[in-house]
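Task: fold both queries, return tokens.
Query 1:
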Amino acid sequence: MPSPDPRSPSLAAGQGLHLGGTLGLALAATSIWIVLGGPAQPVFWAALAVPIVHQLFVLVCWRMELRAGLTSRTIGFRGYLLGFLLLFSARFVTLIAVAWLDQGSLGLPLAARVPLVVLLAAPAFYAIQSVHRYFGFQRAAGADHFDRKYRALPFVREGIFRYTRNGMYAYAFLIFWAIAVAFDSAAALVIAAYAHGSIWLHYLGTEQPDMAYIYGAARTRGQSRGQSRG
């Protein structure tokens, strides 16, 4: 466990952008959903809420761990990881539920959907496989906030990270878009765009300040969590 440090990013650092931007995206998604006729209630609301809850959970656990070691002393890394995985899974469950209830609303023919799904899913699965193979999901979930050994590891330059510095956020989350297109759901497409946008706000508002503190600002400039593991 890293030594607690009051100089680490505060709970509020970067959150004007992160939480303010996410709430703005949620408002925009709701407005579009209303124009679509408000389908898939109340699952749509759950799909909007889960990313906010997930990212708040990660924010609080990360920052409290860095500042005071509080997460390790309460729920521990395993408790954090369990909460992370449950909330991450809930993103998919709620998205699929929206897509199922709203399927067919886009009106795309099967001949158009199949190649679109392949184009979206292929880089997403390559990114997920790269995460699994080159640094593991525990590290991707933020193990460096809890265990100092990860801090000496080099940035990953293999798999999808050979071609992009933000492979996980840029490409892995395309799986949300693929699900929406596969079900031909306009409401799910709105959720996919909202969820993808909100994770980038998490990256900018929460992850970047944390990585600058953990690894040093010069080393982490332009990097994503996916490349902090190797």
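Query 1 returned. Query 2:
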Amino acid sequence: MFKFSQNIHNNSMSTRIIALIIGLIINAMGNGFTIVSNFGSGIWTAAAVNIHNITGFQVGILIFCFGILNTITNQFLIQHLDIVRLIEEIVYISFFSYMVNWFTNLFTSWELNQWSPILRIPMSIMGVTLFCIAISLYQRANLFMHPNDDTTNILRFKYMHGSAIFSQLTDMLPPIVIIIICFFITGKVYSVNVGTIYSIIFNGMLIATADKYVWKSLIHNFKPSENISN
């Protein structure tokens, strides 16, 4: 249990639910743009693609497995068993996976994947920027979120004194190690491109900036069981 030193009143539940829904949609949309652009995606997705090229397992299944591992990791990070939190994160993964597929199919039907690289590179960067804004929204709403984003949220406030940048960089270390190991096995790196590098460098900065300038009245809402030190 960690203690938040300031006396802050949470946003209303309706506001938090709206932020969650908007964040979920924007996140799925952003991931759809990065996938269709084929110029790099988030580092965890890239790690899944590299494992896929060794094992043959479907990328979607690998991403889901990463989510389950993140969910279990979060239970250790908060230092107590929280069944509700675990179930919420699994529910989020299910909806998120469906919506990413929906947006990806929609953008493919619009033939965005056929655009020239001059247009697809900024599309990938825009997609990363969108899902960083989305992460900021539903992390602040703090109802349901992707387990990986909950990991960075816990790292940020429990272990890293509120730093979005350091928490994001720490969270990226495991998938980077996975990609390096896969490279030594295959001699190739897959799904790492402009968008991935942009994500590695700017994820934390983009989330921290969105915290300040996107929906300013939406604060970091903490659950009654959370005592987070500033």
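Both queries returned. Flag for query 2: The chain has eight helices and no strands.
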